[in-house]
Design goal:
605 residues; alpha/beta; Rossmann fold; 4 domains; 7-stranded parallel sheet; 6-stranded parallel sheet; 23 helices; 17% strand
Amino acid sequence: MELRDYQRECLIKSRNAIRRGLKRGLVSLPTGTGKTAIFSHYPKLFEGKMLVLAHREELLDQAAEMVQTINPDLNVQVEQAGRRADKDADIVIGSVQTLMAPARLSRWEPDEFSTIIIDEAHHSVAASYLKILCHFGLVPDVSGAATKAEAKSMYEDFAPSESAPSLLGFTATPSRTDKRGLEWIYDELVFSRTILEMMEAGWVCSIRGQRIGTDTDISEVKVRAGEFAVGDLSEAVNTAERNGLVVSSYLTLAAGRQAIAFAVDVKHANDLYESFLSAGVKAGVVVGETAADERHTVINEYRDGVINVIVNCMVLTEGFDAPITSCLLMARPTKSQLLYTQMLGRGTRTAPGKDDLLVIDLVDVGKLGVPSLNTMFGLPPKLKVDDDDVLTTRKVMDELEAQIPMSALDNAVSIQDVRDLAQQFDPLNAARPEDFIQATLAWVKTSFGYALSMGDGGHLGVIVGHLGASEVRMRGRDGYTESLGWHKYPQVAIAMAEQWVRANRSEQLKLLENTASWRGGAPSEKQLNLLKSLGVRVPVGATKGDVSTLIDAHMAGRSDSRSQPPTAKQLWYCRTNRITVPEGATKGTITKLISDYRNNLQEVS
């Protein structure tokens, strides 16, 4: 099999990571970019037996076929239900549901495999997976932990032994709704590509979208464990009117396209299927209880174009490949970014004669926190992505976002709206403090409150917190933060800060005052070039002081971000890779430490 450039790169980085001793690595690639093809080449790189874990029969059979095709001289066998792999098999494709049974798991010695692969690795934190990984010495045994906090601490302190197999997980969705991060298991992201990167390279198809507003109110639907309660959700959305809207949207926007419709539960799937049939659309339906032979018939009819629409509920979200799919009907609201990403992945594969993928989002009343195509790609909520595809739209947004904050784009419907708003947006007005602040020095408004550049690489910050309570902090060039006091009202906090400047930095007052004579001059070429490089538009007639205000606002925001405390993810990365974290280290400091560490790894590789 001829490998694509990124697949070869992934193989090389995987090999190098294992050679330098990494025991638990993660690979993140969008659906449809050949994850199975990549790990099917691992037997050529790693010595010893390999175990591939998957949780669905379709995934097991696909993996077994691909691995055997690429490694024709090896003995590839499946361990699932009535199928038992021989002990002398070179590669075992194992069902998680089967292997979690003590009698099946005990057949395999903890050191029997040199490499373990997990397909759809976002499931790794499920109890079934953890039981298997614990058997092979890749996660701790937390059966004796008294609390979740104690169990989490055991995961944080755990390191696999040298004799444990190497673990490589593959997923298109490395984040989870339930907050149980994959960092509990995986120590490093070995290789990753985003869907936008793959779209630009032509490995996944262009994506366009349509938002269809409904009158259905889902604001009162109960939420359990971060997701809508299925029964309540189905009762709310499974109406004749809404189902009819799904069908009419397909007929109006996507008639003739091969489409997958995602429903909430079995009843919703069947009712939506009947709505398609009533409208004369050739359709089929598959649900969990659909008999295997009937399911295969429906899927084959869809792939052959005998039917145009296939309705399902939680059956085709994983392990289903039909590159001809050019339309997705998101009739099932979800709060899970992971689930939405999985549904989106059913249509992103390229195919001969397929120009793009059309995603039709049903947008209900009270949809707060519900992912859509726009939220997936960081676009304004009402922006249409039908004329231009997602990639083109995202590139335009990247050019314009430095000129206008996303919060000002909530009602933008088209890219032209965004361009018009960016043109009308006054960056100076956004950067200047409100009139009630009554500042006498050149403060700028930022995302965290207000800032005053001190001209030595540092700045004073008034950090506005809950209910307006504001703390005055001094930030130096190294990111060190010193609190100078706080007050209930930001205008009083700023007055306190200005008094501190007069008492402690009086030599800078002539430069910092709003009325300083230098502010009325023409901006320097150096100032203008800096703003240009930052993508910040300079208003016509701007003075040297105006341009300085724009620069200060941008730099203060960036400085504040770097001087914040390190994130939990940064600390986790340092801990798992034995990177020493200095006391009082900031986010910026840790970023530099991690960057240096990764550069050293590349040199070693």
